[in-house]
Amino acid sequence: MLRLSKKAEYALMALKDLASRPAAEAASARDIAERYGIPVEVLAKVLQRLAKQHLLVSQHGTRGGYLLARPASRISVGDAIAAIDGPVTVTVCSSADDDCDQYATCNIRDPLWRVKDQIVNALNSYTLQAFAADESPVVPISISRRSSDQAAPPAQVPVASR
Q1: Residues in Cβ contact with 85 at an 8 Å cutoff, skipping those fewer than 6 apart
Q2: What is the Cβ-side half-sphere exposure of residue 135, based on CA atoms within 13 angstroms?
Q3: Using CB atoms within 10 A of its CB, is residue 129 exposed (0-12), middle (13-18) or buried (19+)?
Q4: What stretches of 86-150 show up as alpha helix (H) in DSSP?
Q5: pLDDT by residue (tens digit) across 22-48?
Q6: How many helices (H) and strands (E) does the chain have?
Q7: Which of 113, 93, 115, 112 is nearest to 104 (CA)?
Q8: How far apart are alpha carbons 9 and 121 in whole angstroms?
Q9: Which of 53, 3, 40 shows the shortest CA–CA distance to 14?
C-alpha cells in the first residue's frame, strides 16, 4: 500500500494553507499548527525541512513566518512529498543497485517500476496551486500498445472527484 507519512501530510496541509494566502502573507509554524491541530514542534521541523529543500522561505521579525519560495504553480505535490519522505517507491528494490536474491529472476519488478513512474508523474504534475484550489488533478497516463512496446502519447485523464 502506498502511504504518505504523517509528516508528509502535515507538509501538504501547511503548503496548502500558505498557497491559499496572499503571496506576501507569512504564517508562523504555531499559527498553522493551531489551525489544523498539529503538534507545533513536529510542524516546525517539517517547515524547516521544506525551507531547506527550497520550497519555503522563512522571514524573521514581528511579521515573520513562512512563505512559499516560489509561486504555487511551480511547486508540485510530488516536490513536497519527496522533500519529506524521499523518493516514492513501491518495491523493496528501487534501483538496479539493490541487493535482492530474486533480482535476476523477478517478474514483477519492471511492471511495478512502471506503475511507480505513473504515480510519480501524477504527483509531479499536480501543482500546489491546483491542490490549494481543490481542483481535480489532470493526470498524464502513458498507455502501452498491445502490438508493440512503444507507448502511446500520454493521455490527460481527469481524476474523478470523490
Answers
A1: 4, 5, 7, 8
A2: 16
A3: middle
A4: 109-125, 128-132
A5: 888 999 999 999 999 999 999 999 999
A6: 6, 4
A7: 93
A8: 19
A9: 40
Beta bridge partners of 144: 151
Residue 18 scores a pLDDT above 80: yes
Residue 84: all three cell numbers together: 519529506
* Residue positions counted in the chain: 162
- pLDDT tens readout for residues 105-152: 889 888 998 999 999 999 999 999 999 999 988 766 665 543 334 444
CA distance 151 to 38: 43
Residue with cell 494553507: 17
Domains observed in the chain: 6-158 (1.10.10.10)
The amino acid that residue 138 corresponds to is V
How far apart are alpha carbons 137 and 161 in whole angstroms?
9
Task: Write out the three cell numbers for 11.
Answer: 507538509
